[in-house]
Amino acid sequence: MSSSDSDALVLSDDPLHPANLIPELCRNFYQLGWVTGTGGGIGIRVGDKVYIAPSGVQKERILPVHIFVLPYPQAAPSPHTDRVFLRRPSLNLKESACTPLFWNAFELREAGSCIHTHSQNAVMATLLWQGKEFTISHQEMIKGVRVGGVARALSYLDTLVVPIIENTPNKEDLKDSMAEAMKEYPNAAGVLVRRHGAYVWGSDWEKGKTQAECLDYLFEIGVKMRQAGITTVVSS
Amino acid sequence: MSSSDSDALVLSDDPLHPANLIPELCRNFYQLGWVTGTGGGIGIRVGDKVYIAPSGVQKERILPVHIFVLPYPQAAPSPHTDRVFLRRPSLNLKESACTPLFWNAFELREAGSCIHTHSQNAVMATLLWQGKEFTISHQEMIKGVRVGGVARALSYLDTLVVPIIENTPNKEDLKDSMAEAMKEYPNAAGVLVRRHGAYVWGSDWEKGKTQAECLDYLFEIGVKMRQAGITTVVSS
Amino acid sequence: MSSSDSDALVLSDDPLHPANLIPELCRNFYQLGWVTGTGGGIGIRVGDKVYIAPSGVQKERILPVHIFVLPYPQAAPSPHTDRVFLRRPSLNLKESACTPLFWNAFELREAGSCIHTHSQNAVMATLLWQGKEFTISHQEMIKGVRVGGVARALSYLDTLVVPIIENTPNKEDLKDSMAEAMKEYPNAAGVLVRRHGAYVWGSDWEKGKTQAECLDYLFEIGVKMRQAGITTVVSS
Amino acid sequence: MSSSDSDALVLSDDPLHPANLIPELCRNFYQLGWVTGTGGGIGIRVGDKVYIAPSGVQKERILPVHIFVLPYPQAAPSPHTDRVFLRRPSLNLKESACTPLFWNAFELREAGSCIHTHSQNAVMATLLWQGKEFTISHQEMIKGVRVGGVARALSYLDTLVVPIIENTPNKEDLKDSMAEAMKEYPNAAGVLVRRHGAYVWGSDWEKGKTQAECLDYLFEIGVKMRQAGITTVVSS
């Protein structure tokens, strides 16, 4: 594929093209404090293509030409096979280290986007909830959360359960434990990673962003409540 | 009504036209943390027309063409009658679920705008004030609050009382309890909804926004005071 | 004076003209949370003219045409004399209620600007320091503070003292107690008003803004320290 | 050197030219609360030239023409020799008081940028960690930190150690103690200054900014953890 063919995959006048959305959303997430220090990011899948930001770059300064495009589906890379790309940026860049984790959301939830944040609300939630679940009920924002493959809405009276997995020195090693948690909790709207952050997904980029905002709001209010000595789960 | 007639209701060069104001104010509210995760919003009434944002959309990305226009006054929808619109956006959108609650402010207070926030300051206030009232006195910001139908200003020495109602699984069910609280507290400048947020209104969009900012400031400082062990109501 | 003559006092291409600066700085202060709900603001004096924003308007939406211009010096209004203006906006607006308090800074400190904030850091400082002084030492930011008529810099080892006066139901009544505090504390860089906010000044608009930022930073860190049980004044 | 020759050193259409980057980054840092009240800033070195902002100016309002350019390397000024400049702004400005401290990073770490913040997270960290080291382990963000001359990455399991030096009344006096700490801690990614802030560096402007964000995130979460009674260093 020639370079100009490849660029055509990420150059578009449409502000809603994934290669335009990823830079814009990452600036948004930077202002929310989710992706400072090059951490965090978003992967978007539209049909048979996945768009992913580079690893180790300032997330609020990504440009469309920095975006990787990958065919979907594809098998995970192995000792004998590499990851397949439709486009690599013409720079010395590597795809986001979150790629295998985003893939979990695409494969196990048919997600159209997956967002990874280093939000301090998420990290504090994993420090104050020492077990393997963050739980909260009786918050209006819970009604914004969609769970399961059919995107079912929760009720205000439902208890939201977000599984917490343990962090690992290498991000690649998170892939299996995240997948395991997603299978054990088929209704999970996201996965918390202890002392690290959260992965949240949705059927498209809008739903992914909305879910990330709802969950982060709930992590934040949950942390405030626990620190104020208020229980977060009310038995109805 | 033809589509172009309908669009004329929301397309205007005037930045103060309600269909331009709603998108701008919602971006403002997003930055304040009031309307993340598609929650919250604002309804504006100018004379015999009401302008309302859609339900379930990202509030910071609303466009004028997304705005619903409704005639005012009109009876609440019933099992036999639908809500009446002058304009529906040509998209698969539903009007904000807050519509009946905004209507409370228009009907019971002759309000020109009503703002709904999911502000964490409001939610924390409803968690720390477990009864049916949030109260605070001796704060300069209280002087910014307008109460009652005649928009009377409060004194620095007055005690501001904001009624707190219980949240319900369905937003429609809040309409009656909000109306009841507004009648029981004719001087209320807004209504808090436990574990949910706040509804605040004003005689026009500016007053509504100003009132929402004053009250949110007072919820925030009230929460800080209570958490620091400082009483919020001083007996003069 | 004709309307066009009057407009010439506030219409300028120079971004540093006071009538352009006041709107810009108020947007800045809004983002800092200092002037929400129409509270707070800034008055600028350049030579024999004082520029002041209107009362009761959204501070982040002021336009140059909204600015009042007053001759300086002039006597305070009395039962028999009105305040004198070079320009009033052609709208139903009243000058900021802070005008007499800004005048204190112009007259007693020869200030070129005076900023009033409702910052919650300032209010919390007045709640946690129950006496008539806020004090802090051994903070690098103290070196940014300028005190006294000769704009002397403080040392890192100095104790910054900011007098706290009691709030009054009417802002006009604050004028005398603020003036008294400024005379009693000739080195004060600003005055805190209990349960209300702060007044801070400087020899020009830049110095006023810088001083307001330094003091607000010190109120914020002081509140955090006291809440963490750390004393704010170290005996050297 | 004529004035136009001198201006050529700071006027460029390239947004990544240091004289364009410094103003932009300082606006960014202002929004993060790192450089209010004229405090803090950034120095950038590209090859044999160092670019530095003025002292005592509003950091969010710097223009390219305000930037100082210095040849690198050069000896520290002494009683008999002045600092050497390739360009001084044609205004009554003095170079940032941080210049000798930035020089430490350039000389001892071959840094391409050095950032100084007055972040309250950094100051609170120095108040809650009363010894000479801030330490934290088991945080994903630690993996973003680069240590030592070869920019080695830390593991999630490593303990990050940031030395804390005591503040001094005169910034010049910090130069030696900062250099001493950098030699004693060859793997330090930055230096905290008690009751003052932090100095952080990187091999170029991007790495410096990234490191400053990573460390500030860790100071913030460390302070939150300690205040919640959670130990920040886990023994593996």
Key attributes of the depicted protein:
6 helices; globular; lyase (chains A, B, C, D); methylthioribulose 1-phosphate dehydratase activity (chains A, B, C, D); eight-stranded mixed β-sheet; Aldolase_II/adducin_N (chains A, B, C, D); L-fuculose-1-phosphate Aldolase; Salvage_MtnB_euk (chains A, B, C, D); alpha+beta; 236 residues; zinc ion binding (chains A, B, C, D); homotetramer; two-stranded antiparallel sheet
Provide a descriptive summary of the structure in words.
The structure is a homotetramer of 236-residue chains. In chain A, 31% of the residues lie in helices and 19% in strands. In chain A, strands 3-2-1-4-10-9-8-5 form an 8-stranded mixed sheet, with helices on both faces. The N and C termini of chain A lie far apart (60 Å). By secondary structure, the first copy, chain A, is of the alpha+beta class. The first copy, chain A, has one domain (3-227): Class II aldolase/adducin N-terminal domain (L-fuculose-1-phosphate Aldolase, 3-Layer(aba) Sandwich), CATH 3.40.225.10. Chain A is globular. At the B-C interface, helix 6 of B face helix 4 of C. Chains A, B, C, D: Pfam families: Aldolase_II (PF00596).
